[in-house]
Fold:
Amino acid sequence: PTVSWFLLPVCVHLLCSLLQNVAWKKEAVQSSQGNWAAAGRAVDGNTDGRFHKGSCTSTEEESDPWWRVDLQNAYKINAITITQSDSSENLLIGGEIWIGNSIEANDTKNVRCAVIADIPAGLTFHFSFNAIEGRYVTVRLPGVLKTLRLCEVEVFPTDYVHPLPNVAMKGGAAQSSTLPFAAASRAVDGRRDSFYSAGFCSHTAENEAGPWWRVDLRRTHIVRFVKVTNRGDCCAERLDGAEIRIGNSLENNGNNNPRCASISHIRAGKTNTYHCAGGSMDGRFVNVVIPGERKTLTLCEVEVYATPTGTTPSDLTY
Structure:
């Protein structure tokens, strides 16, 4: 199958979607158990990568350790996420993800959908691929003297979709400066009209140092991805090098919050989607800032697709 792996959340429609994690709370087993870290911890819904917090699995050091979840039904699966532990040594390099209807390791009907190259400590990798049908998802780590640790494994089938809302439209927007008739709120009015003269774009003063724009989501959210629409009638290059930052602090107007993504270039009038590294980021404030001197920030729409913190799979209706 065609496989893409990246530190991004999976997005499958024009309006991206939050997919049902069918591995959540399902029965999991592993080849051995080390440090009292049972296999079920990797499907408890907790993506905390800190091993000492007690939500990660671990095998003993052995040859070819493995972990497996029984989804209880066969699904057509097209995406899997794995959260790495915060171990100083990356224990998952070379790991393999298999999908199939057999628990036999050498069953040729099972399909290897991905090989894990490198997951930074404590972060989440998202693997997407052409749909593969199977009841069992297995993570194997070939080799001798290997320890397999997993902090969360999420399995997303093609069959279940739940739309994410654009929570920016309910937020309050501000920016570093404002030209007449180009308030920050114009970038969260729900319109992607990219012609500045139409009156639906925000605009800071020209040639200022580090111009910024911010939306207050009113409460902390788990932000999955952000869509940004660039100005269409001119000046598309002005947005080059901008950064999307997300967090709960208003220090330096929110521009010191962790960086979700960088904008290299958005073509005039186009909308690009930016996924936060690690799969998602928690925060109340979403900033777009352009570092540097003599910069101008124009935004015709910023959409933030997120769910409030504390949401679990049981809170969602499919």
Notes: The CA atoms of residues 192 and 301 lie 6 Å apart. The chain has two domains: 3-163, 167-308. Confidence is low (pLDDT under 50) at residues 1-18, 312-318.
